[in-house]
Specification:
single chain; disordered C terminus; Beta-Lactamase; 5 strands; five-stranded antiparallel sheet
């Protein structure tokens, strides 16, 4: 018997997590034979079994919905606009996080790597790197794309002094998120960015684990900035879009960088904390009124 769409996807996730059928069976409290039968299409899973296996394999919510649909069940996890009343607490938490990060940059980035929220310091940094026309071009799909911004060849990439380190790490992020879904936004971006010749990237691959921080050195306004970036996500969300948000925060690595951002903050008079318009689907909705 040929594997069902569900069985094929389950096997792919198990292999991606480097888990054996026996290991998955023990963790899920079922027999190895039952796992084998589900993957081969000889047994159909219940809705509860899919949820249990997804928990064990730590499968993202979007992929859990795909598994449920492949097995003939309705999706379990919703995907609401960030300005939805039921996500008000999450929206407020994001506001507090990026405001608290001042005077240093903070971006909230969605699944497609679009910047949907940012603080004043982030706006100041982008304004120091790009003219208005370039920012408009980077927002061609409804919001400034973080990856396209970092790889922009004329105004951003020449500023990054350690691009030979930064570029491969960014590609590594894309590869990790693109794994198993060649139609995901990360996979599409990866293919796009790899078509641009860049000797500094060498033969970047997915070897090794991703470091917890990304060190960046860049020239902005006659100053060499040195900072490190960290990524924060929501721990246990029950909304697909919310789980896929990333909060990218920068921290100064030397006194000159700290001074630069503090002075820039003094010149800022307003703070944009609203979700951006992210295109025709409007996943994050319109600004609050």
């Amino acid at each position: 018997m040929n594997p069902t769409p569900f069985g094929k996807r389950l096997a792919e996730w198990r292999e991606r997590r480097r888990e054996s059928q026996l290991g998955l069976a023990l963790a899920a409290g079922v027999s190895q034979r039952h796992i084998s039968f589900m993957e081969s299409g000889r047994a159909q899973p219940s809705r509860e079994m899919i949820v249990r296996l997804s928990d064990v394999l730590d499968i993202p919510l979007r992929a859990r919905n795909e598994l449920l649909t492949a097995a003939g069940f309705a999706s379990l996890y919703g995907e609401r606009p960030l300005v939805d009343v039921e996500l008000q607490a999450a929206f407020g938490a994001l506001q507090r996080i990026i405001v608290h990060q001042e005077p240093y940059p903070a971006f909230v980035i969605d699944r497609a790597w679009r910047i949907v929220m940012h603080n004043r310091a982030a706006a100041s940094l982008m304004a120091g790197c790009f003219n208005e026309a370039a920012l408009v071009a980077l927002a061609s799909d409804g919001g400034v794309n973080f990856m396209r911004m970092m790889f922009e060849p004329a105004q951003m990439r020449p500023r990054i002094r350690n691009w030979s380190s930064v570029g491969p790490r960014l590609l590594q992020r894309l590869r990790r998120e693109a794994a198993g879904d060649d139609q995901s936004p990360s996979a599409i971006l990866l293919r796009e960015l790899l078509t641009v010749p860049d000797d500094a990237l060498g033969t970047a691959d997915d070897a090794g684990s991703l470091p917890p921080t990304l060190d960046v050195e860049m020239n902005v306004a006659s100053t060499t900035l040195r900072f490190f970036n960290t990524i924060t996500t929501f721990g246990t969300p029950q909304d697909v879009g919310l789980q896929e948000l990333r909060i990218e925060m920068s921290f100064p690595a030397d006194a000159a960088t700290e001074t630069f951002f503090k002075k820039a903050a003094e010149n800022q008079s307003s703070l944009d904390m609203k979700p951006g318009d992210v295109g025709a689907q409007g996943r994050f909705g319109q600004n609050r009124t």
